[in-house]
Design goal:
heterodimer; A: mainly alpha; two-stranded antiparallel ribbon
């Protein structure tokens, strides 16, 4: 059987809804696309822990400190789970780390920005995790089964984070005018990065969708995010900095303003406001925690 | 570093099901890492690890109630946030009473007043 025949047979399995396991034969195009996507997801989980992590010492109460610490631990744990899945596709953890800190691989745009206030922590917890959950729920039906297993583990935790974030938001919006303003200010600054988070409108032939690694277009995920969260924000009297954002009955979807995509490409290309600082933090932790990896590797046998 | 597949049981009557994987130098460390990576939130009643390429499943020796910890870590579970949905409705009602609700075109299922 030729490579092309095997690839066509493989594609037919995916189109029939079959799941692919790590040990199965797969075309190079599939392996590389899955690896790139899952590696980027793993990078984002770990890099996403950094902005929130800076707020653990400044959390306003012990209760908030405990829940934020647990959330940050969860995000790093998601990174662990996803890097393991990515490793089975043929790239070592060390190489993935090296590519990340040297700017050869990407992480999600939203984690290139600063978390300036406690209002940002509330926003990230509710709406960045909410956006992530919209994406990740759609991956529960992906074609690569080890990734699906990871999503079955990750989605319930993201759902918990969402509740944690929603509670923080409700505390702020039902508090003093200054607290409401703190959250409104966070929405104003984070809205465009959140629109970028879903990515530009998907190409006609998106290879990730072709292979079933992703199951839905960027646009349909962004529309679901609008429907789930925008009415809630408006109910809470929180405005969104997009004057065009409104449900269009005729089209049966939301009208919205295209964000500045140049900004998106600049940020994911490694030129965001916090990119270099975060990558330096990641590298410092890797270096200063080398002893942990060595301890886990065990004591070498005496010569 | 050896790769270990991680298995878990949600309820006592379930079979062990593959849930993910970790890397660890030996069985003892594999059991510690599997518990910390996959069972921090009381996800099940039993778990085990199997070194890739081998047959034997090494089952963690924890009592089902101890998996996920014995101190109050409810903030790691949904139950700690059970009232949040109700609070959203209450706060939305207050905002509507104060005239702060924003009325913009929204999908039909979200049109009723809070």
């Amino acid at each position: 059987m030729t490579y092309q025949d095997r690839s066509s047979e493989f594609k037919a399995r995916i189109d029939a809804g079959e799941k692919i396991e790590a040990a199965d034969w797969m075309p190079d195009e599939y392996r590389l696309a899955a690896l790139k996507f899952i590696e980027m997801h793993a990078n984002s989980e770990v890099m996403g822990a950094l902005p929130e992590g800076t707020w653990i010492p400044r959390a306003p109460s012990l209760k908030r400190k405990l829940s934020l610490t647990a959330k940050v631990q969860d995000e790093v744990g998601h990174g662990q789970i996803l890097y393991r899945v990515a490793e089975d596709l043929g790239k070592s953890r060390e190489q993935m780390f090296d590519d990340l800190v040297n700017g050869r691989t990407k992480f999600h745009n939203v984690f290139h920005y600063p978390a300036e206030t406690w209002g940002d922590v509330a926003y990230i917890g509710w709406l960045i995790d909410g956006a992530a959950l919209v994406n990740q729920k759609a991956l529960l039906d992906a074609s690569y089964m080890p990734y699906v297993r990871a999503m079955r583990r990750i989605c319930p935790e993201e759902s918990l984070h969402l509740r944690h974030g929603e509670e923080l938001v409700l505390e702020l919006v039902s508090g003093t005018p200054a607290q409401r303003e703190l959250f409104q200010d966070a929405v104003n600054r984070w809205w465009q990065p959140t629109m970028h988070f879903f990515g530009p409108p998907s190409k006609k032939k998106d290879m990730l969708i072709h292979w079933g690694i992703k199951t839905r277009t960027n646009e349909s995920l962004r529309q679901e995010f609008f429907s789930t969260y925008v009415p809630k924000l408006w109910d809470l009297g929180i405005s969104v900095p997009d004057p065009a954002l409104a449900w269009n009955d005729g089209k049966g979807e939301w009208d919205w303003s295209e964000p500045d995509w140049d900004e998106f490409w600049k940020v994911v290309g490694g030129n965001g406001p916090m990119t270099q600082i975060r990558l330096a933090q990641r590298k410092t932790v890797w270096d200063t925690h080398a002893w942990v990896r060595e301890a886990f590797a065990g004591i070498p046998e005496a010569a | 570093m050896p790769v270990w597949d991680v298995f878990g049981k949600r309820t006592p009557g379930d079979e062990f099901v593959l849930v993910g994987g970790i890397k660890a130098p030996d069985t003892e460390m594999a059991l510690v890492l599997a518990r910390e990576t996959h069972f921090r939130h009381k996800e099940g009643v039993a778990y085990g690890v199997r070194r890739r390429g081998e047959e034997e499943l090494h089952v963690g020796s924890y009592d089902p109630d101890l998996i996920g910890g014995v101190t109050d870590r409810s903030y790691r579970r949904q139950e700690a946030y059970a009232g949040v949905g109700g609070k959203l409705k209450r706060v939305a009602r207050q905002m509507a009473e104060q005239g702060l609700r924003i009325d913009r075109p929204r999908p039909p299922q979200h049109r009723s007043q809070a």
